[in-house]
Structures are given as structure tokens and as C-alpha cells.
Design goal:
The complex is a heterotrimer of chains A (300), B (326) and C (212). Chain A has 300 residues and is α/β, with parallel strands linked by helices. Chain A is 34% helix and 21% strand. Chain A has helices at residues 19-32, 49-52, 56-65, 81-93, 103-108, 125-133, 147-157, 179-183, 232-238, 252-264, 269-279, and strands at 7-10, 37-40, 69-73, 98-100, 114-116, 136-140, 161-175, 202-205, 211-216, 219-227, 242-245, 285-286. Chain A has an eight-stranded parallel β-barrel, surrounded by four helices. In chain A, strand 4, helix 5 (103-108) and strand 5 (114-116) form a beta-alpha-beta unit. In chain A, helix 1 (19-32) packs parallel to helix 3 (56-65) and helix 10 (252-264) packs antiparallel against helix 11 (269-279). Chain B is an alpha/beta fold and 326 residues long. Chain B has two domains: 2-168 and 251-325, Alpha-Beta Barrel (TIM Barrel); 178-233, no CATH class. Chain B is built from ten helices and 14 strands. Chain B has helices at 10-18, 44-56, 75-87, 97-106, 123-133, 146-155, 178-183, 187-190, 259-264, 279-297; strands at residues 2-6, 23-26, 60-64, 91-94, 112-114, 137-139, 159-167, 171-176, 199-204, 207-212, 215-221, 252-254, 269-272, 316-317. Chain B is globular. By secondary structure, chain C is an alpha+beta fold. In chain C, 53% of the residues lie in helices and 16% in strands. Chain C contains nine helices and five strands; from the N terminus they run ααββββααβααααα. Chain C has helices at 6-23, 25-31, 81-89, 94-99, 109-120, 126-131, 138-142, 149-167, 174-204, and strands spanning 36-43, 48-55, 58-65, 75-79, 103-107. In chain C, a hairpin with a 2-residue loop joins strand 2 (48-55) and strand 3. Chain C is globular, with a radius of gyration of 19 Å. The chains are: A alpha/beta (300), B alpha/beta (326), C alpha+beta (212). Chains A and B meet through helix 4, helix 5, helix 6, helix 7 and strand 7 of A and helix 4, helix 5, strand 8, helix 7 and strand 11 of B.
């Protein structure tokens, strides 16, 4: 069986990194990382967006010059008039394709080519078909889908593009409330951008001191770092075409190389896993969702 | 102003109707609804009887079919919609686009409401569902302030229903995988959050420990009001060395004090949460809200109501309706 | 403390469960998914507890003396008898009892919730179970409007004392309650005999003492 060349993608940076750090990160990715598609934009909190916005054109040009496909990602939870206005401007004027992370964006992009992001619920073939029929060229699946569902959606896609989240802490929940601010006894309005302190999120532990979750502003992340490194071949046979790496404050170029190598050389997968574990120091790896188990588990 | 009330069982339904519910919302006894708890909900025959009973009193029945159908296994959800249509319920409450699509094609005259699980938090999203599936009403997610609700209502062409009382999600509904991350069971796929099958209570010295799967969610010293170990309502360590209710206290939403403001905002219906609660809860909350709504509509002051004891952790909040909550 | 009239209570319990099953078949239906389950119900202000065994919706129960060992418990539910009876009749919300710590649950929480939901799904009335048309004290009610009324009214009044001791807030000392239960037991047995006698005499067409 011949399968189309699997594409490696880099999701938007979900955390609050200083703008210069983010710019330099993307320059390095442009120069060194074997990724095919790069998603850029503030997904988590609209208050953070203004800092990086001025750098976006420069970064996108650099990435495109390096032969990468660039996609702009929208905010995931849209409530205020300002957020709606910015979304409107983005969907009307963007020179780059858009990843829609809320139904509002899909509504504005209806019948225009777009990508349905992982914050939009796609659980079954009916929904997937609806999105393809209204202009989606690619659909990124939610993190909690088990392999059986991914396989079924792959069958429905019939070669159309499907992306799964293959690496990184998983974005599990969104809220109007900022937990970073709350944890520092600050209000959301007066948050002092305190989330900048934790470039991979703030660990949350139980009363027994067991690691539990991680907080990224208004977003709640998995504590464990999702890795479908050992499941890549199966995902390819399901018809998954794109594999997403979530950026972390670690050697993402090396992470990308490991995944690229594992996609191309399945026989290396065990060695790849060892290499990945060396890079990921923040928390253990997990793949529970894929195996229909608790998301935090690592199923061998 | 419509008062929309929960019923997990036929006796709770009766209690809701007696207490003055305009509408009772229910679910089938399976994974097609977001309160898929053991021993709860309605068989098709029970729903048939309930619908006849409510409609004969001039009241309505809504059926929540608001989980996300499983890929490759759409039949239970399709059958639930077909049954609801056949029984002649007044509306179905749904979140999944594929299921809305099915219902629009198969049962175009069956009234469709957008579930809170669809998390439509802005006019563009609401209007998407209106344009694509002709939904007649949206149940707004519990992330908006009263001010934002009013602004939103001004820009949508469908009725708005908001939560008035009960258990409150602190996360955007339908966009939360915390429960499946910890327990393997999720609201979207299984209709449960922090399921009882994974809950353990344990007396440890002078503390009651509540656990969810492998994780301790809270510890209550003797004498302190307890709560269910919903995983976002526990005590955790975040920043610093002291544990805190990092996400939310074990608390219930109660908008009683904001009722005049909410009614003025143009909201069409007020919803009480709690299909999993007993009929005593239903009776008490529904009658309190009935009295309060009637008083406000007559231009009178809010009557006293004592709902304190039935709230979780014996405390309540106006939640996201007030901006300070964020 | 005197030994409890366990035999009497056990008999009453068996009749109670049988009636419950007939009056509220929906409960069994909702309990079926539990399969085999053993609940230890502990009224904290009573000198005994109940072991309720469920088998695919079919319930049997045993009365245990306080402190008696029980094994293989699915879950235990403890609370004062007043709260437990309110819970059974659905006149109080189980979560409320739990949140305010008047109810303590240990073991399989899901099984307890299933039990609670199943019982709450009907308008259960203890009085109805014990005195409904086919209840153990049926003859008393059936004949309440007949010439036998004054006799049976007395019997009913006595029964309601028993019921009060269960349903009303438990303020009596346990020893007093023991005596009361024991007195009621004798009384009921005696009345049962008398009813049989009276029924026999009614059949024979005899005039009954007490009629005008």
C-alpha cells in the first residue's frame, strides 16, 4: 500500500513567550526544522496578541522563504467585541490561510478554503463531512479521540487532509477565567501577564503532591506530554495526513527531526522514543487517549 | 420568560410540573445525553407518558440529545432523535453538527435548540447554527457576563436561554477533556464528567478525602461542607506552597439576585441545572424560581428564598455573569 | 441491652421489600445494571443496621446487630434514621445530605448513586407500602369504614405509633424504642389473631361485638 507523504506540522505556540523569543524560535524553525506546515497566532488569550502581532509578517515571510506552508490560527474562545472585531479583520484580510478554532471563524470563512482547528469539535463522520463540504481543506482532530474514531474519520476523509496532535502537552480545556492570574491572587484584567513565568505552563499538583494538570492562562493543559511516536504508522494507515507537534520550551528542532525520522523509518521507533524522552524533561510522556484509556497514561 | 427545569426521573418530572415549570428537559437512559448517570433518565415509554402528561397541562418537554455521537456508531443518536420526533416532544437540544444535520434533513419540523455543549459564545457562532440548521434557540455557555449576554442577544436572530441555578462548569462547556484525561470518560463522548464509577471517599483521620481515579481532589476537615469530586472543583497546589481552589470552589450557580437584570437583557428562558439531583431538589429550586420570576414580572421585590442548603459546598456564586469572577 | 426483636423486624422487612417490588417495579428495572451488590445501610442512631443484597434488581435484606461483621460490601451508607427515611421517600435531596455531611458514603459511589436514582425515580411512600391495598395491614384499612371501624382505628393508631418511631425525628432513647417495638410486635401478633377470628365470624354471618 502506498500512502501519501506524511506531513509534519508545528502548531501555534500556546504559551505566553516574549515576542522576541517567539520570533527567534520561528527563525530557527525556518532554518533548521523538518516541518512542512507552521501555524502561527494567539489561540489562548487575546490580551497577549498585541505583543507578537508586529512580528507576524516578518516571521511568515521567513518561513515561506524556507519553503514552509504558513497558516494563521484564530483565538479559540471568542467573547468580547474586540475579539470579534479582530477575528473579522483576520478572516477578511489575511494573505495566509486560516485555521478556525471557533465556530465563529468557520461561520465567517464559510465556502472559503480554511482549516478546522483542534478546538472545534469533530467527533464523527457526519460532522467531518459537513466541514469538508463547507470549505474545510483540512481538519485537525480533538485530542481525546480514541484510535477507533480516528480510523473511522480517516475512512470518511477518503484522502482529504486530516491532522492529529502527535506531540506536546494537550490543550484540555478553555475558560473565561484566568487560572494563572487566580493562582497569583491577581484578577484577569490586572494579570500583569504573569503567565509569562511558565513557558511550558504551570504545574498543578494534588494535595498528595501528585502531578495533575498544567495551567496556561485561561487554558488547562495535560501534565503529561502526549506522544504518538509509537502510533505514527498506524495513524498513517488510518489515512491521517498531517502530524502536529505543539511547541514547547525545549529543542523543538530535534523533536521535529525525531518525528520526521520515525515517520520515514518505522524501524527506528524504539530508538526514537529513547531520544525523545531525553529531550522532554518537564513531565512523562503519555498516549492514553489514543488507546481509549485515561489521557495521562502511557500505554506500551 | 420560560422556566426550563431538569428531570432525571418520572417522579422528578412530576415534581417540576407541580412546582411550576413551563418546560421540563429530560434525556434518554443512554450515552446520547450529557447526564448519562446510572439509574437515571427516561425509557422511550416513560418519555411518551411524560410528554402526554406535560402537554395536557399546557407545558412542554425538551429532550437533550447533546453528547457527540461516536464515529462509526451513529445509530443510538439517530434513534434518539427519531424517537423524540415520534413521541412529539416540543424540542430537541443538540450540540453535534453531524446530528443537527441529520435532524434537519430527517425531521425538519422538529424544533432544534443548540445545547450549551456547543459552546456558542458569540453572535457569529450562533448565527452559523441558525443559518446551517435553523436552530430556534441557543443555550448560552456559562462564560459570559450579563452585559455580554445582552449585547449578544441584540445581534442574534434566535431565542437565548441561560443557566440560572445549579452545578456550574468553569470551563467552556463541550470543549473540555479534563474528565477523560483523568478518568477516560468525557462529557462529550460519554455524557459524564468526573463519573461516580471513579469516585472514592475515604475517611483519613479527621478528614474526609475525595478521590477521582488515582488523584486526590479534596480533603474536608470534619464539620466543613463537602462537595462531589468534580475535578475542576478541588484543592490543588499551583503557585506557592498553599493549596487552593485553583479552578473553582465547590459551589453552585445562583443568579437569583441578578434576575431582574437578566430578564431585562432579553433572555427568553431560564434554565435550572440538575437532572442528576433528586426530586426534592427539583421541587425546591423550581418553586423558588417560579415565585421569583413571577414577582419580578409583576414588578415586585424578589421574594426570600433559601436555596443555600441544597447548593454544593453549601455556597453559591453568580459565576461568570459578573466580570469579577474571571 | 435486651436482644432486639430481630425476627419481627426481619419479617416486616421481607414484607416491605416484597410490597416495594410490586408497587414500584420501575425501581428494579433501574437497579438491574448493578448486577450483584451488597449495601450496608447504617442508621447511626439505631442499635442495628441493614444489609441489602441486590441481584439483578431483586432485593433481599437482613437485619444486623450493631457491630456485627459484614463482608464483601459494595458500599456503606450511614446517617441518622430520619435522614435515611427522608432519602427513601425522596423528601430530601441526597446530595444535600451528603454535602452537609449528614450522610456518609463509603465504597462504590456509582452503586450508591444508582440506588439513589432508582429509588428517587418513583414517589415512594412508606405508609403506602405498609398500608396500601395489598399491604400487610390491608385488612385494617379495608375495614376502616365497616362496622369493624372502631377496633381497627385503634389498631391503626397503634401502627402509626410504630411508624412515627421510624419516621419522626428519633429523640427517644434506644431502650425505650426497643420496648416500643417489642410491645408493637406482641400487639400486631395479637391483632392478627383477632382479625382472623373476626374474619371467621364474619364468614359465619355472626353478629360482631362492637356493631351498633
Amino acid at each position: 500500500m502506498t500512502l501519501p507523504m506524511a506531513k509534519l506540522t508545528l502548531g501555534p505556540v500556546l504559551y505566553n513567550w516574549p515576542a522576541e523569543k517567539k520570533r527567534d524560535f520561528y527563525f530557527k524553525i525556518a532554518d533548521e526544522a523538518p516541518v512542512d506546515v507552521i501555524y502561527i497566532g494567539e489561540v489562548t488569550c487575546s490580551k497577549r496578541a498585541p505583543f507578537f502581532s508586529p512580528f507576524i509578517p516578518e516571521v511568515c515571510e521567513r518561513l515561506e522563504a524556507a519553503g514552509k506552508e504558513v497558516v494563521l490560527s484564530t483565538l479559540a474562545l471568542i467573547m468580547s467585541k474586540r475579539e470579534r472585531k479582530e477575528l473579522n479583520e483576520l478572516t477578511v484580510g489575511s494573505p495566509w490561510p486560516i485555521e478556525a478554532n471557533d465556530l465563529s471563524a468557520i461561520s465567517l470563512l464559510r465556502d472559503k478554503k480554511h482549516i478546522v482547528g483542534p478546538f472545534v469539535n469533530v467527533y464523527n463522520e457526519g460532522t467531518l463531512e459537513h466541514f469538508y463540504n463547507s470549505g474545510a481543506s483540512r481538519v485537525v482532530l480533538s485530542c481525546e479521540l480514541p484510535s477507533a474514531s480516528i480510523a473511522e474519520l480517516g475512512r470518511t476523509a477518503k484522502g482529504r487532509e486530516i491532522e492529529v496532535q502527535a506531540f506536546g502537552r494537550l490543550p484540555l480545556a478553555l475558560s473565561a477565567r484566568c487560572y494563572h492570574a487566580r493562582s497569583h491572587n491577581l484578577t484577569k484584567d490586572g494579570c500583569q501577564y504573569i503567565c509569562e513565568l511558565d513557558p511550558d505552563g504551570m504545574d498543578v499538583r494534588t494535595l498528595d503532591d501528585t502531578p495533575f494538570l498544567a495551567v496556561n492562562g485561561t487554558q488547562t493543559m495535560s501534565y503529561t506530554v502526549n506522544s504518538l511516536l509509537g502510533e505514527l504508522q498506524m495513524l498513517k494507515t488510518f489515512g491521517v495526513t498531517h502530524f502536529r507537534l505543539w511547541p514547547h520550551d525545549m529543542d523543538m528542532v530535534e523533536v521535529a527531526r525525531i518525528f520526521r525520522n520515525a515517520l520515514d523509518n518505522p524501524e527506528d521507533s524504539e530508538r526514537s522514543l529513547g531520544l525523545l524522552q531525553e529531550i522532554v524533561a518537564i513531565a512523562p510522556l503519555s498516549n492514553g487517549f489514543f488507546h481509549a484509556a485515561e489521557g495521562f497514561r502511557m500505554v506500551e | 420568560m420560560e422556566l426550563v427545569c431538569p428531570a432525571g426521573t418520572p417522579s422528578a418530572l412530576k415534581a417540576a410540573l407541580e412546582a411550576g415549570a413551563d418546560v421540563v428537559y429530560v434525556g434518554f437512559r443512554d450515552e446520547t445525553n450529557a447526564r448519562n448517570f446510572p439509574g437515571l433518565n427516561f425509557s422511550p415509554e416513560e418519555l411518551r407518558v411524560a410528554t402526554a402528561q406535560a402537554q395536557s397541562m399546557g407545558r412542554q418537554i425538551y429532550v437533550a440529545i447533546n453528547t457527540y455521537p461516536e464515529a462509526g456508531n451513529l445509530t443510538p443518536w439517530h434513534r434518539a432523535v427519531d424517537l423524540a420526533a415520534d413521541i412529539g416532544v416540543d424540542a430537541v437540544i443538540m450540540a453535534d453538527i453531524g446530528l443537527l444535520d441529520y435532524t434537519t434533513r430527517r425531521h425538519p419540523t422538529l424544533r432544534r435548540h443548540l445545547s450549551v455543549q456547543a459552546s456558542a459564545s458569540n453572535p457569529e457562532a450562533v448565527n452559523f447554527y441558525r443559518a446551517a440548521f435553523d436552530v430556534q434557540r441557543v443555550v448560552l455557555p456559562r462564560v459570559l457576563t450579563v452585559r455580554e449576554i445582552k449585547d449578544l442577544i441584540d445581534e442574534i436572530e434566535v431565542e437565548a436561554e441561560v443557566f440560572a441555578f445549579g452545578g456550574m462548569c468553569v470551563m467552556a462547556e463541550g470543549r473540555c477533556s479534563l474528565s477523560s484525561y483523568i478518568t477516560g470518560k468525557s462529557p462529550n463522548m460519554n455524557g459524564v464528567c468526573s463519573p461516580a464509577s471513579h469516585v472514592d471517599y475515604e475517611q483519613r483521620g479527621r478528614k474526609l478525602i475525595s478521590k477521582l481515579g488515582d488523584f486526590t481532589i479534596n480533603a474536608y476537615p470534619d464539620g466543613e461542607a463537602a462537595g462531589y469530586p468534580t475535578l475542576c472543583k478541588g484543592r490543588f497546589f499551583g503557585q506557592g506552597d498553599d493549596p487552593s481552589y485553583l479552578f473553582e470552589e465547590p459551589t453552585s450557580l445562583n443568579v437569583m439576585a441578578l434576575l431582574p437584570e437578566l430578564i431585562n437583557s432579553g433572555v427568553k428562558a431560564l434554565k435550572i441545572e440538575g437532572r442528576q439531583r433528586g426530586k426534592a431538589y427539583v421541587s425546591q429550586v423550581v418553586s423558588s424560581y417560579r415565585r421569583a420570576i413571577d414577582a419580578v414580572l409583576r414588578g415586585e421585590a424578589l421574594p426570600d428564598s433559601n436555596l443555600g442548603s441544597i447548593t454544593e459546598g453549601a455556597r453559591s456564586t453568580a459565576g461568570a455573569y459578573q466580570k469579577s469572577w474571571r | 441491652m435486651r436482644p432486639l426483636p430481630v425476627k419481627f423486624l426481619s419479617r416486616l422487612l421481607t414484607i416491605f421489600l416484597g410490597r416495594m417490588k410490586r408497587l414500584y417495579p420501575e425501581i428494579a428495572n433501574r437497579l438491574t445494571p448493578l448486577g450483584h451488590c451488597r449495601f450496608h445501610i447504617i442508621p447511626t442512631d439505631f442499635p442495628f443496621s441493614f444489609l441489602v443484597i441486590l441481584d439483578n434488581g431483586k432485593a433481599t435484606a437482613k437485619i444486623l446487630n450493631k457491630g456485627q461483621a459484614v463482608s464483601n460490601i459494595t458500599a456503606s451508607i450511614s446517617g441518622d434514621i430520619y435522614s435515611l427515611i427522608q432519602l427513601l421517600e425522596g423528601s430530601v435531596d441526597g446530595d444535600t445530605l451528603f454535602f452537609t455531611r449528614r450522610l456518609i458514603v463509603e465504597g462504590d459511589t456509582e452503586a450508591v448513586l444508582t440506588l439513589r436514582n432508582a429509588i428517587d425515580s418513583v414517589d415512594l411512600s412508606i405508609k403506602h407500602i405498609l398500608t396500601g391495598l395489598t399491604g400487610p395491614l390491608t385488612p385494617l384499612f379495608k375495614r376502616a369504614a365497616t362496622p369493624l371501624s372502631s377496633f381497627h382505628r385503634t389498631a391503626l393508631k397503634d401502627f402509626s405509633i410504630l411508624q412515627q418511631s421510624l419516621v419522626g425525628p428519633v429523640t427517644r432513647r434506644i431502650s425505650q424504642m426497643d420496648e416500643e417495638i417489642s410491645r408493637q410486635e406482641k400487639r400486631l401478633i395479637q391483632q392478627g389473631k383477632e382479625i382472623k377470628k373476626i374474619q371467621a365470624s364474619v364468614k359465619r354471618g355472626d353478629k360482631v361485638a362492637g356493631e351498633n
